[in-house]
Design a protein that fits this description.
With 434 residues, this protein is an alpha/beta fold. 47% of the residues lie in helices and 16% in strands. Bound molecules: uracil. Uracil binds next to helix 9.
Length: 434
């Protein structure tokens, strides 16, 4: 086979065969196909797209380019959850102990934050001593014994995707739905769970800015997961404003702990319960949404979910007292307040702008190598639909560098838009794809 012929074939709009895709991914991973040829192929895919069979073949070839975790030694249906990335999205921290407390094992691989979006691994590292680089053996043992383990992605998980993603990033070929779907699903399938639940975000803080585009991506990923033999469900959720009231690592951990104490804000808890319902359904332990929600509410009210979270933090080397006393987590030196410039109602709260403000406070990475300040963050006091009086607090900013705080202040102030007319808060759970 010659890469030149495959590029020409895709450029002219024909479908590539499974064998051609397998050959291409293998040869690209070993370095036989140079970046310039793969870049041309990626651009051709952006213009011509890929059908289901091509996207599935690409996903499976990338899954098989590295290690595929074997979780069969752990009893029960192992369910994984993945979000396409958002601002203020701390659902994994709340959801995984709830699901584990209900007896469904959770073996999860998570990533770090990049750009304006956060990542679960950074949040977990807010607990002193917490380690996400655990051996495969320790990971499996912990899932069996504690019911939940979360690790960083191993270096050899879908290495073809890593190489391809780096190329997409610099050739303006990230935002194509079959490429996004195969990239996400190759890693999910390599992580070894029996079932997968996807949270596909839509809105200005998300990859897919309209509900229609998010649904298209969700349907492609669900079809791939099911064709690969894993029960896969998705939910489309709103990311037109940050999820919950905090953005930043330590403040999000504190909000997750409040949620596990039964005090989570409605928009956040609606997403947690929607994903939880799909995880319990995928595990075969719940069919009815109301019944699933009642069971989740019960493990929060009884304190079982919080205890499960504390046991999980301790099992991975973290300080358990910080779960029961989140005020023991580190604090930033500077607090700045943003106030309302007029009376009215919050009409918009730009998620991307808030995520960028958090990054400029030091709480996010501009490149994969950036060091982050875990104490930097934003606490939102007002969200869409809330009434405000001139001079009232809209948000608090936390940081350790006065110049960075000043830059972030302006971004946060400009993220709010006001209306004189009252309006409803947006729904966060928009559609199930099951
Ligand atoms: N996340 C991924 O892992 N891959 C993509 O292509 C987009 C988001």
């Amino acid at each position: 086979m010659r890469m030149y012929d495959l590029i020409l074939k895709k450029k002219e709009g024909a479908a590539l065969s499974k064998e051609e895709i397998q050959w291409m991914i293998n040869a690209f991973t070993t370095g036989e196909i140079p970046d310039y040829q793969m870049s041309a192929m990626l651009m051709a895919i952006c213009f011509q797209g890929m059908n289901h069979d091509e996207t599935l073949a690409l996903t499976l070839a990338m899954r098989d380019s590295g290690d595929v975790l074997d979780l069969s030694g752990i009893k029960g249906v192992k369910v994984d959850k993945h979000s396409t990335g958002g601002v203020g999205d701390k659902t994994s921290l709340i959801l995984t102990p709830i699901i584990a407390a209900l007896g469904v094992p959770v073996a999860k691989m998570s990533g770090r934050g990049l750009g304006h979006t956060g990542g679960t691994i950074d949040k977990l590292e807010c607990f002193e001593g917490f380690s996400t680089s655990i051996s495969e053996e320790a990971f499996l043992k912990q899932v069996s014994e504690v019911g939940v383990a979360i690790a960083g992605q191993t270096a050899n998980l879908a290495p073809a995707d890593k190489k391809l993603y780096a190329l997409r990033d610099v050739t303006a070929t990230v935002a194509e739905k079959s490429l996004i779907a195969s990239s996400i699903m190759s890693k999910k399938l390599a992580s070894g769970s029996d079932a997968i639940v996807l949270d596909v975000k839509t809105g200005n803080g998300a990859f897919m800015q309209t509900v229609e585009k998010a649904e298209e991506l969700a349907r492609i990923m669900v079809a791939i997961g099911n064709s690969a033999g894993k029960k896969t469900y998705a939910v489309i959720t709103d990311m037109s404003q940050p999820l919950g009231n905090t953005v930043g690592n330590i403040v999000e951990v504190q909000e997750a702990i409040e949620a596990l104490n039964g005090k989570g804000p409605k928009d956040l808890m609606d997403v947690v319960y929607a994903l939880g319902y799909l995880m319990l359904k995928a595990a075969g332990v719940a069919e009815d949404e109301n019944e699933a929600r009642t069971r989740m509410e019960k493990v929060i009210a009884s304190g079982k979910a919080l205890d499960k979270f504390a046991d999980f933090v301790e099992a991975q080397g973290g300080r358990k007292e910080q779960v029961y006393h989140p005020q023991l987590l580190a604090k930033a030196a500077i607090t700045e307040t943003i106030t309302a410039p007029e009376d009215g109602y919050v009409e918009a709260l730009n998620a991307m702008a808030i995520g960028t403000a958090c990054m400029s406070l030091g709480g996010g990475r501009e490149t994969k190598e950036s060091q982050i300040d875990l104490t930097a963050g934003i606490r939102l006091k007002k969200k869409i639909g809330d009434s405000v009086k001139k001079g009232e607090c809209l948000a608090e900013l936390y940081g350790n560098d006065a110049a960075k705080c000043n830059d972030a202040k302006e971004l946060v102030q400009n993220a709010f838009l006001f209306s004189k007319e009252p309006l409803d808060a947006p729904e966060t759970v928009l559609k199930y794809i099951t």
